[in-house]
Write a structure and sequence with these properties.
126 residues; mainly alpha; 6 helices
């Protein structure tokens, strides 16, 4: 046996399952709906400039933001997703702070509407 025959190939086999896993990983992301607006960011849509801008504005990379949503989402992380989606859509002059104020106001309005219109069965007469 020659030396090259004894060593296993360093090339990875490219199979359908490998391609499926890769596609699934690129499709991972975050989607937020506020009112009628849908904000979505997928891993496959990100590039290095988006990632750098997110770190500058929010302080964390997208992978950390996704992890935050799984463990302990807050208004700040909601604002980060909204900001990133809008930034990727071309609003490059938009700051995280501008979006954070809007998100806070929209959530406050939604909560005020929810508390002003109690669900049936929650009334004291029931």
């Amino acid at each position: 046996m020659t030396e090259t025959q004894a060593r296993p190939s360093l090339q990875r086999k490219h199979t359908r399952s490998t391609e499926t896993k890769r596609t699934e990983a690129l499709d991972e992301g975050l989607r937020i709906t506020i009112g009628e607006d849908v904000y979505e960011v997928r891993v496959g849509d990100l590039n290095a400039l988006h990632e750098r801008a997110l770190r500058r504005q929010y302080g964390s990379p997208f992978a950390d933001l996704m992890e935050e949503f799984e463990t302990k989402p807050g208004l700040d992380s909601v604002a980060a997703v909204v900001w990133l989606a809008r930034f990727m859509a071309g609003e490059t002059d938009l700051t995280y702070e501008q979006v954070a104020v809007d998100v806070d106001l929209e959530f406050a309005e939604a909560m005020a509407l929810d508390s002003a219109d109690p669900a049936e069965g929650d009334s004291p007469e029931a």
